[in-house]
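[09:14] KT: can someone run the structure on this one? pasting the chain below
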Amino acid sequence: NIYYDVDKELLILSCGSNGVLIYSWNGISGNVSFLNHIVSSHAYSAKVYKDSYIIVATKYGVEIYNYEINQ
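[09:31] RB: done, structure tokens below
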């Protein structure tokens, strides 16, 4: 799954058994900055919640990661 948060300029890629990748991207330029790799169970989808959590829907349930987003 691909999720883009326009307000925070975050691109979040759910990569199945490879977890979740988080990038900073303004949505226009070709410059993308890698921020973090979350190792999780088989990730189907991930989204930002309340500026400090990444919620990941996995094959085995929901996982919540505390992730402070500094913008």
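[09:33] KT: thanks! The longest strand covers residues 43-49.
[09:34] RB: yep, looked fine to me
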